[in-house]
Amino acid sequence: MTQNLVSLDLSDDLPKFDAALDAIEGVMDIFVSLTPEQIRRLTKIGEKSETFCRQTVAILDQNRQALPPGFDLDELKRDLAAYDALRPRLNRLKALVARCGDTQLALGSDVLSASYDGYGLLKMFGKADSMTPLTESMRSGVRRTAPAKGDGTA
Prior knowledge:
Elements lengths: L13 H14 L8 H6 L5 H16 L10 H52 L7 H8 L15
């Protein structure tokens, strides 16, 4: 094999991995799922609007007497606290998902590279009778290298 980016045997670790995912899913039962349409319609907080929100919450907290009875400042403060608590955990999850994706990409690349090497060996040693399905697979669009990128003009 000419390439071996990663070598893993996950059989011992998969039960622990699955248990950890089960635990995370159990905790996340309280989280919401939004449709693409709901996401599109929401006002979204950004860096500048987050500063505005924090300043507004602080000023509202100092002026509770001016708020109408229906304005739930305590709920607003709980939402902001949850928003702050969720951010570092979401960042950790994103980093873990990226590592899983990178590992799967590397494994797939190793598998494809080794398959090409094996295919070449079969061709070289004349194992023609076992080559028909492989030859058909190769004709169906499998590429040895990534397609060339455009020149940047569109």
